[in-house]
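Chapter summary example.
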Amino acid sequence: MSQTRSAQPFTSVFNETLNIEASTPAQKRALSYATTIEMLFNQVMSSKMPADRIIGQYFREHKKHGSKDRRVIRESLFGLFRWWGWLSQLQASQQHVILFRQLSACAALEQHTWHDVTQAWDDIAAWEEVSNSQANTIPNTESINDKLTLFIGLTGMTQCKISDLLPQWFWQTCPVTAAEEIAVVEAMSSRPPIWARTQSISTQQALVTLSNAGIEATASEFFADAISLGHKSINLNEVDTYKLGHLEIQDLASQVIGQICQPQADEQWWDACSGAGGKTLQLRSLMLQKNPNSRGSIIASDIRNKPLEELNKRAKRAGFNHISVSTWKSDALPVKANAFDGVLVDAPCSCTGTWRRNPDMRWLDDVSAVSDKPVLQLDILTRSAAAVKSGGQLVYATCSLSPSENEHVVEAFLAQTNEFELIQVTHPFTGESCKMLTIWPQLADSDGMFVAKMRRR
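The structure predicted for these 457 residues follows.
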């Protein structure tokens, strides 16, 4: 694997950018966008805060931006992170030229459609300095190989490699076969669709309702209640299907977890690390699908109160009963021991499986994001296992792609107890039978996830 230098904040070019002469309104807008994007990029890198949080706060504080402004800024910022493994290697005689070359190349790779702005960035980028600059666009740039050809043709950076788009520590901690390397990078360098689940109504009903609202949606071939809402931004608060609790946003890979749990209608489950409760709601929905009069129940726990408050709001919107919350307040179990038919441990992790949606995280984190977690994960899994009754299920999941957070944690847990055994599961996307399941993002246009299912003897 090739070495990739870490992402560093832009050297500030704000004053240089202000001194660039703009002769047209488009050029003025392009310069304004550039300084804003540069500022946001540097704020993300210096604060180590997620880019979506930084940009969300910025838009709340700067309401002057219209919908086009917000789109240009948002998509350019996330595009920079998506292609930073290549863009960070660009060079130029002047620092401000590097910024505009990065913006120009990013726009070409992303195939952005605001051509007046990108043309201004192209002009300032001074691509004439690059010997091979005539290939600033090529048709059909869908594959990652095409993207690399485009980038090299535009920049002359022949040393760039496909593997550069993910940090070196990813390849070290998330082993990928040579045959799958390109597919992994290609998935990680594209934006997944918005996946959702239907609740309390049929998928067909939801599709019709969404279509009447002007929203294109398609059913998943894998799960009866899963639908794709495509790639366009949607204001869910204006969608009746969502407001009525008939639609929940949940990535397809995340939906795999509930499908592996397969809770029965009258079972008692504990979601030990629930967060805001996406999987809690899925478990309850699956119970109700089996029997609308389900007497099953779910307790959701987390160390934070705010996500549990959000879960209560979501459960109320869905009209779901038999869901309660219990906060982890100490090392002691927040629920009764030996009391549950099923316990789900969706453990804190490095989140490498979610890099498609959060491309900034691959450059904000380092190898410690993976190496620091297994001890905590094993501790949570061990404590939570005490809540499983005899014959009950224990499901361990992460949104990591690293064996050290996944298989190795499960193996360490099973090595310290003879009370649990692995249950064979079927890969929902390939049909393969396996003891532990990793969902790679290229398999079904989703995020990445891991899940293992165990039974108490």
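To summarize the output: The CA atoms of residues 238 and 386 lie 43 Å apart.
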